[in-house]
Amino acid sequence: MSIVLDQAEIARALKRIAHEIIERNKGVSNLVIIGIPTRGSFLAARLTKILSSLEGVEIHSGSLDTTMYRDDLRNAAPRSLGKTEIPLSGVHDRDVVLVDDVLFSGRTIRAALDALSEHGRPKTVQLAVLIDRGHRELPIRADYVGKNLPTNRNERVQVCLSEIDNLDQVEIEGRA
Amino acid sequence: MNRHLLSIADLSKEEAISLLDTAAELARVTETPVKKLPTLRGRTIVNLFFEDSTRTRISFEAAAKRLSADVINFSVKGSSLSKGESLKDTALTLQAMGADGVVIRHPASGAAHRLASQKWMSGSVINAGDGTHEHPTQALLDAFTIRENLKERSGDLMGLNVAIVGDVLHSRVARSNVLLLQKLGAKVTLIAPPTLLPVAVNSWGCNVKYDFDSDLNSFDVVMMLRVQRERMEDAFFPSEREYARRYGLNAARLAQLNSRCIVMHPGPMNRGLEISADSADSDKSVIVDQVKNGVAVRMAALYLLLGGE
């Protein structure tokens, strides 16, 4: 087991992503930040906080559970559902930034795109992830990446966040 | 969770709470403009109803359709069952057609258990009421409704005082509710005439009273049961008027309930017998909420039973 990112590095990565989001969207006025439970929601909340302190305005944010939209539900025991909270402003015609902790096969993001379309038609959908570990199974890529982490398929990337894990760090398990 | 949902007794407290939490999430999701989720796409669910039902059958049908399952409705009238086909042959037919889940209501206690345990079919079995035995999804939606109203939508029902009033003897709803509400920490009091209580009721672990008028304001929930005239072959009480006077929820008793108390009824109601019209329509009544919550709770049950492998 080795630590890939520590607390300060996670904070720096999020700060950089926030700047990139503002730069690319030329401001934050049309943004909605949507996290994918569980850890994506916490990252989305942190990102929202950084964005609003940088720009001095309130940013709409929420969370979107993808469980019921997954295509691999039958391969495992039923999972319990995460929270879905779409901000009152909705996602229609907004620039939506999806936030997740680790981008791997891309299947969660595919499910999230399906789930998102039930709530309206966003103007654009962008993807921010803390870790991109490769091994995509679908044509999906991230727009904002905290850290590109080349991995082996059988390694495990564990993101710990202080909101539920009592500390901030990213570690990789099973590396030979 | 088990592969089948036959009895509340098979559920642990944690499983029951997780089912209620899942239902709460699903209730929120189905408030979006598009009420459909793709979760059970390609799965077939058969509603096998050997007894009449409006609420339960429609509720299961709506739940399955909102999860994108294919639904086949099957009722005794107009099927080979009225020609005398056995439960076994019906089950084998359903298996041959590839039913992934069967929702069964049957007048015989234990019918759902038999269907699930005989290896006649490989799908999940959900008990939607078997004789006077159990009706687990009704108890779950009742617990969900109580939690929504009195427990801020989360956790268990610790500390609540629930009265279940009326025809306990014939009521599968009462049996499932006693099991589930006690499992979730509520205190249950059964109130009924002695003739409408089962023989071994003192082994159920709840209070039993014959008098509806004492301590009325101590209850957080008053659940009225339907007088099941179709199951009554003997005289269980002298007259309907006397029953309504002693065990009916009328305006006078309604006025004595405490301010946060809610009134429930599993339906269909005999207005004027166990519950007066002004009680059924009062602002304490959550009877319509019960029906609405039924869909979310049944979606949760279908998802947890059929969603994974």
Unreliable runs of chain A = none
What is the CATH architecture descriptor of the largest domain in chain B?
Answer: 3-Layer(aba) Sandwich
State the end-to-end CA separation of chain B.
Answer: 11 Å
Strand % of chain A is 25-35%
> What is the name of the CATH class of chain A?
Alpha Beta
Query: How does the helix and strand content of chain B classify structurally?
Result: alpha/beta
User: Main sheet of chain B: which strands, in order across?
Assistant: 7-6-5-8-9
Q: What count of domains describes the coordinates of chain A? A: 1
Largest protein interface, residues of each chain: A-B, 19 and 20 residues
Number of helices of chain B: 10
Fraction in helix of chain A:
25-40%
At CATH's second level, what is the architecture of chain A? Answer: 3-Layer(aba) Sandwich
Task: Outline the low-pLDDT stretches of chain B.
Answer: none
What is the domain total for the residues of chain B?
2
CATH class of the largest domain in chain B: Alpha Beta
**Shape call of chain B:** globular
Provide the CATH topology of the largest domain in chain B: Rossmann fold
What is the CATH homologous superfamily assignment of the largest domain in chain B?
Answer: Aspartate/ornithine carbamoyltransferase
Total count of strands of chain A: 8
Structure description:
The complex is a heterodimer of chains A (176) and B (309). With 176 residues, chain A is of the alpha/beta class. Chain A is built from 4 helices and 8 strands, in the order βαβαββαβββαβ. In chain A, α1 (7-25) packs across α2 (39-55). The longest helix of chain A is centred in the N-terminal third of the chain and has 19 residues, at 7-25. Chain A is globular and about 45 Å long. Chain A starts with a strand and ends with a strand. Chain B is α/β, with parallel strands linked by helices and 309 residues long. Chain B has 10 helices and 9 strands. Chain B has a 5-stranded parallel sheet, with helices on one face. The N and C termini of chain B lie close together (11 Å).
